[in-house]
Design brief:
Peptide Deformylase, 9 strands, about 180 residues, alpha+beta, five-stranded antiparallel beta sheet
Length: about 180
């Protein structure tokens, strides 16, 4: 089932998240709905807060970046109850966008490499060291379960320059090809 994506300014994107048990039919249905919603919205990642759920859960399929970063060719993962345990000192700046902030793309500096501990969709513990585009995408989605959007990484000046665009987004004045929930709804 396609789920609506919650848009920038909605309080659910800032709420604390809780761990989720990756067993049972309800979890499987949630995952299926998240994959379907992400693909329909033409996304590469989707976190539970973006669909109104306060769980420590996100899904990623970065295979579209395989030409740019070959390590993304088979990088399709479910991250259940993840914790970033290490961030590199070196940073890389790249352009990012977000399903919850439609129409805005900005250069964001993030650690070049991370280590993340999580459970997969079967509840098996995993630890991965990631760099390149994989690290970038995981950090973007991880931020969502921490109540952070990529806009929060921008300088105060850049945020002021985007103020009218962000106000338009929170008011529903943007082009969308997927179902959304606006702030205040």
């Amino acid at each position: 089932m396609l789920l609506p994506v919650y848009i920038y300014g909605h309080p659910v994107l800032r709420q604390p998240t809780v761990e989720i048990d990756p067993r049972g039919e309800e979890f499987e249905k949630l995952l299926q709905n998240m994959w379907e919603t992400m693909y329909e919205a033409d996304g590469i990642g989707l976190a539970a807060p973006q669909i109104g759920k306060n769980f420590r859960l996100f899904v990623i399929d970065a295979s579209n970046f395989a030409q740019r970063d070959p390590s993304c060719a088979d990088f399709k993962r479910v991250f259940v109850n993840p914790r970033v345990t290490r961030r590199s000192a070196g940073q890389v700046t790249m352009n990012e966008g977000c399903l919850s902030v439609p129409g805005i793309h900005e250069d964001i500096a993030r650690p070049a490499a991370i280590t993340i501990a999580y459970q997969d969709e079967r509840g098996n513990p995993r630890v991965e060291e990631l760099d390149g585009m994989r690290a970038r995408v995981v950090q973007h989605e991880y931020d969502h379960i921490e109540g952070i959007t990529f806009i929060d990484h921008l300088s105060p000046l850049k945020k002021r320059l985007l103020k009218s665009k962000l106000a338009a987004i929170t008011g529903g004045n943007f082009h969308k090809e997927y179902r959304v929930v606006l702030p205040g709804k």
